[in-house]
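Bench log. Compound arrived from synthesis this morning; before running ITC I wanted a structural hypothesis for how histidyl-adenosine monophosphate sits in the protein. Inputs:
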Amino acid sequence: MSLRAVKGMKDILPDEISKWHRLERAFRERVEGYGFREARFPILEPTELFVRSIGETTDIVEKEMYTFTDKSGKDGRDGKSLTLRPEGTASAVRAYVQHSVQGREPVTKWYYIGPMYRRERPAKGRYRQFYQAGIEAFGDPGPYIDAEVIDMVVGFVASLGITEVEVLVNSIGGPETRTKYTADLLAYLEPYRTELCEDCQRRMDANPLRVLDCKVPRCAEIAESAPSLPDSLTDDDRTHFEGMTNALEKLGTPYRLDGSLVRGLDYYTRTLFEVVGKGDGLGAQNALLGGGRYDNMVKSLGGPDTPAIGFAMGLERLLMAMPEENQGGHVDVFVIAAQPSVRAEAALLSRELRNAGIRVESDLRGGSLKSQLRRADKMNTRLAMILGESEVAAGSVQVKDLEAKSQETVFRNELVDRTRTLLGA
Ligand code: HAM
């Protein structure tokens, strides 16, 4: 049997790539406009990094990580446990601490784009290798930066033409709120213990907040009447949350308060948010992006006490939600040698255009004029340039506009300028 890609991991072939490029370019432009700079982190990290940050009792760490023991030493024993990164925040924090970035700048704003790995059950919009684009901002306790980040991402999603979305925000407060709320939640859940699914019964002992996240219908029903997180915030946490929502109101950013939003990673404190797609194209995996504040993670990974906030979005899901747009061909001009005797001249012509920044393809195998024109058409190029012996003698080229269905003779010394005009550059 022929070999196939690993289950849940997809090839992205050139026909799809222009949409990816468009999305990645738009993301870079947007976040750079807010002062974020790109950072790139390794795909492999020590397993301990994710266990300590994402949390031992989360689905990601319990079930979904690709972990293996590295070889080490001559005998291959005592290797370190390594994991393919399931997300980017932990790596960003590790790098921030490792390079003592905090000593160099009071506020640090990074962004990243790259593949992440989670061994989830593959479904539409849910893969085992998927791409995230995300940002992390260190050193600002908020709440204004929280609002700015949410406003930035909401504006970004709208700029992609994705209009059917809902922006959910919540606060889970800091450690004091968490301790108090967890106790209230446990007291509420205890009478229902045996009605909860097995996972949730375990979660009650290990990490009760996760029960609020459970998709099993009876668990979700029970969670619905659980004590409200927003009502349990300490005064400081409430002031922070209101500062953020007030700032969102001022910015005119649409949002909905969702007291049950807890998100599946343990490192969060205070602000949480998610943008959920409402369009038909997405199916059940409709979380386009999610993020929040993680004020204790830098310290807990050995760095200085540094507040932080960030988000990440799933590129595959955004691509599914984005409207189609005709991008034209991947080259602008198809150069055709009408006779074998002018092939060398045609190559010179192609090079001249390419040096001027024009994307050019030609069929170096030759062939009839008709078959070469057909290839140009198939490639969806805008222009075909035909060079025959008479054109070479006259120092000209026949330029066919395949879109406007017109043809003209252009002299070689005017060709680059005329091509640019025709291409609308
Ligand atoms: P997350 O909610 O786990 O957060 O993932 C963020 C986004 O990645 C999701 O909203 C979804 O669009 C996409 N995603 C997650 N899993 C998959 C999958 N299996 N297949 C396709 N797409 C997926 C985080 O990862 C946090 N690191 C976000 C963050 C950054 N919080 C603070 N800073």
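What the model suggests: The pocket of histidyl-adenosine monophosphate is lined by residues 87-89, 118, 120, 125-127, 130, 132, 134, 136, 264, 287-292, 310-314, 316-317 (CB under 6 Å). The two ends are 49 Å apart (CA to CA).
ITC booked for Thursday regardless.
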